[in-house]
Design a protein that fits this description.
By secondary structure, the protein is of the alpha+beta class. Helix content is 36%, strand content 23%. The strands form 2 sheets. The chain has a 3-stranded antiparallel β-sheet with strand order 1-2-3, with helices on one face. Strands 4-5 form a two-stranded parallel ribbon. α3 runs antiparallel to α4 and α4 packs across α5. GO terms for molecular function: large ribosomal subunit rRNA binding; structural constituent of ribosome.
């Protein structure tokens, strides 16, 4: 029989930059996880993922061991990178802050497809387009 799971933890940590300071240290420490062991493993796995915050799902076992799964960067981060945007619009309906081409939309949708609740690439593109609109980014041809 497998190890008994006693909890799950979701964090977003900059790729290759996990360290014991908050939020990582306290979140893992209170569950008895070896913080440095996690940081080392996470940093090794994410060192080539660029300058993104990486969503990570950590499973904690009764014996204080852990496993983790990394996801792709959030859609909004991928959109910002694609069009060199520092932040979304304060009023997306009135103030447009950028334009995303169909090609960029397709690339982001393909990159995120496995993490999205989408059956195919067209559904994924709709989700990405919705995120773009909520940031004040227009989709252009």
């Amino acid at each position: 029989m497998g190890k008994k799971v006693i909890g799950e933890l979701k964090l977003q940590i900059p790729a290759g930059k996990a360290n014991p300071s908050p939020p990582v240290g306290p979140a893992l420490g209170q569950r008895g996880i070896n913080i440095m062991e996690f940081c080392k493993a996470f940093n090794e796995k994410t060192k080539d993922m660029g300058n993104f915050n990486i969503p990570v799902l950590i499973t904690v076992y009764q014996d204080k061991s852990f496993s983790f799964i990394t996801k792709k960067p959030p859609v909004t981060d991928l959109i910002k990178k694609a069009i060199n945007l520092t932040k979304g619009s304060d009023n997306p309906l009135k103030n447009k802050v950028g334009k995303l081409t169909q090609k960029q939309l397709q690339e982001i949708a393909e990159q995120k497809l496995e993490d999205l609740n989408a059956v195919d690439i067209d559904a994924a593109k709709k989700i990405v387009a919705g995120s773009a609109r909520s940031m004040g980014v227009e989709i252009i041809d």
